[in-house]
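Page 47, continued from p. 46.
Same chain as before, 315 aa.
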Amino acid sequence: MSKVDVTVIRDLSESKKRVMANVVQHIEQRDNKKRVWRWQYSVISVFFTACIVLFFYSQLQLDNKLLLSSNDLPILDEDEMSTMLNAYNPQSEQSRNELFQTMIEMDAYYAYALSKGIDINQKLEDKERLMSKQNLEDDHFKKNLANLEMSVDEYFEKYIEPFNIKGSARNELLKDYQKRYENSFPLHAYLGVKKEAMDYLTAKYVDRISYLKKKYQFSLDPKDAYVSGTKYKTGYVVAIEGDRFLVVSGEVKDLIGYLSNEEMINQKENGIWYPLHEVKEKIIVGNMVSVTYSMQERLGKYGFVANLDEIKIEK
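Result:
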């Protein structure tokens, strides 16, 4: 059985839930706003969290919807973005960016999966859905829908169920990714798939994305959307394996090749695995690097798995 099964997806979902829980807590502590608006963060966080567990297709403009073919879901849809903006009504620039980035990320999964010829299930069972109607049971949210003259059922069928189908495309991409990198950590698999999908979408639909960014004034830079505690690490690249590389701090350069990765992490009581894709052609074993990151998951007693925001090769 592929490692990207229900358990792996659940592990990734739980990881993202913990990260976003810290995000929401940070926002609520930072902004001393009236309680009436705090609901939006939980709703948008659910929307974002759900995200985390087209080269030869024709583009047709039908009712201002960009379709990959006549039978597919619209992507980068202006109507969808406008409706969701009014439904969730984010009050800060950060939360607006978070909402838009999540929507574009899900479109990227869907478009990229179709470009790879992956068959996407259009009829989902409850267990396959990233979001259910229960996620929308909020009085403030319902009031916003009422202002749009929409019921929860209507909103779910028109906007959330397509979102769920695009989520199933992400899961299929994760399975495909795991075939290439069988030992990939769930966080790195998610980040790898996201990079591939976003690279595809942003290269293929440059003008459309530029138009939407300008009209809705949002940023695609993750730093403009997600509050997270920036972390730093300086150390040596002691291993490169599959889709990741390992950085260990301390006097370790002379130990490379003599100790196993686990032995080195335990002896130096530190070690972080980072995703390789962004720096594959830049680093080699033995490089001293300074890394900036913002997400991490514990791996064993001393090790961690993390994302990669920035890296500088010291020598």
